[in-house]
TrEMBL record, chains A, B:
Protein name (database record): Rrf2 family transcriptional regulator
Single GO molecular function: DNA-binding transcription factor activity
SUPFAM superfamilies with a match to the protein in the record: Winged helix' DNA-binding domain
Residues spanning the signal sequence: none
Amino acid sequence: MITQKAKYALRALTVLADADADEPVMISDIAAQQKIPKKFLEQILLDLKHHGVVASRRGKQGGYLLLKPAQTITFGEILRIIDGPIAPLPCLSITAYRRCDDCDGEQNCQIRHVFAKVADATRKVLFSTTIADAIAPKHSAEVTRLLA
Amino acid sequence: MITQKAKYALRALTVLADADADEPVMISDIAAQQKIPKKFLEQILLDLKHHGVVASRRGKQGGYLLLKPAQTITFGEILRIIDGPIAPLPCLSITAYRRCDDCDGEQNCQIRHVFAKVADATRKVLFSTTIADAIAPKHSAEVTRLLA
DNA sequence: CGAATGTCTATAGAAATAGTAGAGTTACAC
DNA sequence: GTGTAACTCTACTATTTCTATAGACATTCG
């Protein structure tokens, strides 16, 4: 299971992706629109900012905006920032590798081989799907309606 | 990440799969062989027993054995017992479905579609791999050595 | 200036994780 | 039929993670 926090982060990003690229969106607006506790969302957006995903403007007329195009922000990237490693085992993590001290020899680890496949399959989906993809169905549905 | 407990469970099952089908293996032996805290392993095996995966014999000469062939015990099945739902979102779980109260309409949920793909990919691997598969490489390596 | 907005750090309650403890039950060996 | 070696069951605990909440601070616009 991914955390609630990660779900909030992804939802928040879809809001930013939906907004005009140069118009900052206020935390309160995002929170209201996606039913996210405001103070919690503050932390999440700050975290995303520190990781170079979003930018912010302070003061009146302030808010958040995407720092790069929605097509370049993958689900995997966000999950790593918020939830940590994608891999199901520490010894399979790319960003936070840690040897399993209870198995001798990764080549022989029977469990590892199976979860390596899981990790591969998961990464394939998470890093090939972007925030832009997430909001696309909505747009195409809109287009469909307009063309009807 | 899967829990340590699940890793222990899978390791313990490979030990049982490696043993003679009618010779019970003692908890202490499994614990020693796989470096699992004994008292913790007790709980795990008991849990697996209650879910019909393994059987036990009490008293002297007692121990645990598989209740069904290793080829029929999938990783997915064990993970569900020990760690709970495989799905990354409650609203995608087969065994523990729960509606997300913060998204209106699952058809529209942008996040859900992506994680549905993740869940599918994960399940495909986890339910097509069995304990027998996990110990297979070891056996074939053994065979290779014997034939050399 | 002052109000609106993001920034940062601390705190806290609840749940999950990873064990540990110990009393109880069963079954084999003798 | 007793002793002991094994599994059984329940409860407890320490640590960490999750999900927030609180409040003082900093910045910007009008």
